[in-house]
Amino acid sequence: MSLSATQIISELTALLGASAVIGEPERMGNYLNEPRKRFHTGAAAIALPASVTEVQAILRWANENGVGIIPQGGNTGLVGAQVPWRGDEVIVSLSKLDRIRAIDTAAGTMTAEAGVILENAHKAAEDKGNIFPLWLASQGSARIGGLLSSNAGGVNVLAYGNARELTMGVEAVLADGRLYQGLNSLKKDNTGYDLKDLLVGAEGTLGIITAATLKIFPKPEDYETALVNIAGPEVALPLFELLRERIGGRLNAFEIVPALGLDMQLRHGMLDRDPTAGPSPWYALIEVSRMRGGLPGTLMAAIEAAFESGLIDNAVLAESLADRTRMWAFREQMSEVQSREGASIKHDVSVPIAAVPQLIAEGIAAAERLVPGIRAVPFGHMGDGNIHFNFSQPAGADGKAFMAQSDEKVHEAIYEIVLRLGGSVSAEHGIGQLKTELLRKVKDPVAIDMMRAIKTALDPKGILNPGKMLG
Questions:
Q1: Residue 293 Cα to chain centre, angstroms
Q2: 379 near 340, Cβ under 8 Å?
Q3: pTM value?
């Protein structure tokens, strides 16, 4: 017999205390209102454990009573993994587990609890003369546990890798309340399956990550940043190759943004001035790190080579921190400005880097055939093949009608191209509840069977994030 919401609240209160349980729907807003506003299901309760021991107690209780548990970090996820699916689940917020447990600069590691806000992890590393290089627009609210559970990417994947590559070990509570103590900081450990890699990216369906040992790196002395005018993605590809040949591992970021993104931001007053060198169909945002003792001018020399080879005809380098901040704001505000423009159809996809120009050209053409007047706004991580292939509603259109009539058919067209080019339908946002059906359609059936077997072994009662990833 399943527990009622009243019973759930009462029993959680007995476990954690009244101050750690939210049962009133009017107080749950911050935990339910996810960024894209696509999911509107309520929860039975919100639990706010203050220790790993309390997380264990919650899961033991939930497993015994068959109560669905949704782990939640900063509630910044874009595919609905962190919010309810049915409405009878308990959201377990890790926000109170927010300590930096240790920093070891010799080993290049930081041990942080799941509730640590990414920006605070950055500050903790920088206080020790290091950086934690996971960098994304939501860093002021995203938390470590959620970032690892979704295997977040961000703008520095090119140089440092995604969340999985930045994680050396994790501590996690399993469905039955047992604690997996895997806070490993060893660079070499061949003692069986890599359970860390299993839990990172699992979107809370196999266990609740409560802490992690993360890689940190010496802080660069400075950064060289430029916005380069490019004719299009087909030029971005040889430009990227030239930069990589000349700069190597110090090339931190190579992002592309169409002119429409700049026009939108200037129209909405989101930039105090135009950060570019002048009008261009597309722009590339490039950043290079300079370590202590390194000579400045590396990026300038590479850009001069690009001028000489005819790849570019205009560029501007950041001459101050304000310039660099403005250039990055231009890139990071792309998602927000689309919300100001009305409804938008979004795709987080990846293809082999060499196929990015073909993806964008074919994708724009397909969407324009399907929806006359649709505005293509593809942007993102050219350097690792991850493009946020978004489309804004035609100017003056009704947003709800646009989504109702166009969402599904545009998705189908873009995903067909992505898969034909050997790509992925989810590059860094995950599956959540948004893409469960899509995953079943595109994933190797053997892989799905293996994933289900792992899920059944670790969570036989299916209490961990029900309805997410595997459906």
A1: 33
A2: no
A3: 0.93
